Amino acid sequence: MSDTSEGPSTSDGVGGLTYDKSKRQWPNELNVFAALILIIVIFELLGAIFMQQSLLFDSRDRFDSIFNEARLRIIIIQVAIIGIIAIGVTQVIITAGIDLSSGSVVGATAMIAMSFAQVAQVSGNPNPKAIFGEWALDLPVIVPVFVGLGVGLTAGAINGLLVAYSRIPPFIATLGMMLFARGVAQWWSLGNPVSFPTDAYAVIGSGMNPVFIFLGLAILFHLIMNYTVYGKHTYAIGSNEAAARMSGINVPRHLLLVYMIAGALAGLAAVILTSKNLTAQSGMGLSYELEAIAMAVIGGVSLFGGRGSIIGTGIGALIIGVITSGFTFLRLGAFYQEMVLGMIIVGAVALDQWQQKRAAARA
Amino acid sequence: MSDYILETKGLTKHYGGVHALVDANFTLERGEHVAIMGDNGAGKSTFVRQITGVEQRTRGDVIFDGAPVHFTGPLDAREAGIETVFQTLALADHLNVPDNLFLGREKTKFDWLGPFRILNYKAMRDDTMAGLVKTGVKIPNIKNSIAHMSGGQRQCVAIARTATFASKLTIMDEPTAALGVQETAQVENIIRTLKEQGESLILVSHNMRQVFDLVDRIIVFRRGRMVANLRKEDTNGEDVVSYITGAKTGAEFEGAA
């Protein structure tokens, strides 16, 4: 054994071999979390000054709790469905790709899945909105759920095949799917809404179920991204595709899988959305793709690939939820809210760039 | 078992009409460190690319570890035990040290989960540490991403791969070309450590001092042909330069170039 205690003279006096705590990196999610806290504090202050009440805390003793549970519930429910899409979009962005189609895929999947979830009888009369004949009415709930997942998965697979095997840039491939899927949504019932789902189907998106599904999926994919080969390769491809290929990773096959998962999650979001609204309309999911991307970007996912996490995106989703709620709470118009969101997205990316540059300069 | 870890016979590579490598007869003993020198375009990198399977040779034989081999790609060569450290680093910036070392050949549990099989972080970390200790590479915190490391540290990580996977032959293509003085010293120390441990090495380098410091034998290429095979003790810098420039040609290679 060679004399490793002396070892090579390291120029910059770097220390031991293992886990020098002082050299440990600060997890990016903490920055995002700090931003969330800061935004909450700002709204609390504005609320205290202008509204004489609190945004998140129970200031009127309406409930036996510290928090204003009703508002917390609203915040999390309104981000849960797009949050599910954002989980998939996050993975796509980590591979240095982009998915612009998820909103339209929600629209198309909503129409198609709902067509298999309709009841035969609406208050004693035949369902006036029935898309298919008798055979597609009163089906077990598993059918529309699988149809929804299947449609999303198919759309994702087409995206993935285009991106991975034909080398069409992800922006163009998914832009094409965005227009195509929206067209499918409008063609499906020629613009008519599809309504009256079975009771079992309506349960999926009722109450807090979307939130539970969102949290469950977030935890599942957090684990997948951090503890499985799939996650490691997703980061590796986004970080250095050439190195990934040289290391023996089947990059096209992996990309296909990533886009399929993103598509399936969009399909699932459509199922939950239609179940919650008890109807499907061709315009559903409009601009969801951008909100999902915004959640990811605010949550610290780098559009250049290789960096970001599901937890970050989850916090990003909460930031968007708090801002949306906060503006309503302050009785400010939705236009201000969009202006501020726009600034926050640009600010988040600018901050990220600045940090990257600083870190690179330090190394 | 053959004394040679690597042997090439009549190794030749043509790119269309360009004869980039002609009839290279090369041997490398186990544990031996050999340098390959030569001008740009002399055939050094072409030679390496034929051995590592990056390209397919036009003709000739490559005998690795006693058996003729036909690598279909660099992965194939790596599987067989040839680790290559490239000048351009094949590392994923956002991953940490063990992740990079094991990229594409992760240690896993529950393999029936397919792409979702679970990473065995502990085993990979332990092996990484063993590899780093073996090479004497010091990394402040192996859990940090490569992006935050200096060029020298990154190159050290790339080299540590060879030690981690107990390769039979290490090939380094100008490993210090992009590094500063101190970082170069660090990499050279690792190469010495590999020597002490009996690792076989082919070092492609332009740096005369480095070559005389580190290797046992020097091979010179000129215009696609091997023109000299010199033991370090029998030669000096001036001598090597005259082979590189074409002022001299080794007796056994007379008439070759």
DSSP E strands of chain B, number: 12
Question: What's the N-to-C terminus distance of chain B?
Answer: 34 Å
Biggest beta sheet summary of chain B: 6 strands, mixed
Radius of gyration of chain A, whole Å? 23 Å
Low-confidence stretches of chain A: 1-17
Helix content of chain A: 55-70%
- The level of helicity of chain B is 25-40%
Give the percentage of residues in beta strands of chain B: 25-35%
Structural class of chain A: mainly alpha
Chain-averaged pLDDT of chain B: 85
User: Which radius of gyration of chain B do the C-alpha atoms yield?
Assistant: 19 Å
How many beta strands in the DSSP annotation of chain A? 4
- Which sequence of strands runs across the widest sheet of chain B? 6-9-10-3-11-12
This entry's quaternary arrangement is heterodimer
Assign an overall shape of chain B.
globular
Distance between the termini of chain A: 31 Å
The total domain count of chain A is 1
Q: Helices and strands of chain B: which structural class? A: alpha/beta
CATH fold-level label of chain B: Rossmann fold
Q: Judging by the overall fold, what is the CATH architecture of chain B?
A: 3-Layer(aba) Sandwich
Write structural notes for this entry.
In chain A, α2 runs antiparallel to α10 (251-277), α3 (102-114) runs antiparallel to α4 and α3 packs parallel to α5 (170-188). Chain A has 13 helices and four strands. With 363 residues, chain A is mainly α. Chain A has helices at 28-51, 69-94, 102-114, 142-165, 170-188, 199-204, 209-227, 229-239, 241-246, 251-277, 288-298, 310-329, 334-362; strands at 121-122, 125-126, 194-195, 279-280. Chain B is of the alpha/beta class and 257 residues long. In chain B, 32% of the residues lie in helices and 27% in strands. In chain B, the strands form three sheets. In chain B, strands 6-9-10-3-11-12 form a six-stranded mixed sheet, sandwiched between helices. Chain B is globular. Chain B starts with a strand and ends in a 12-residue tail after the last helix. The interface between A and B is large, with 46 and 52 residues.
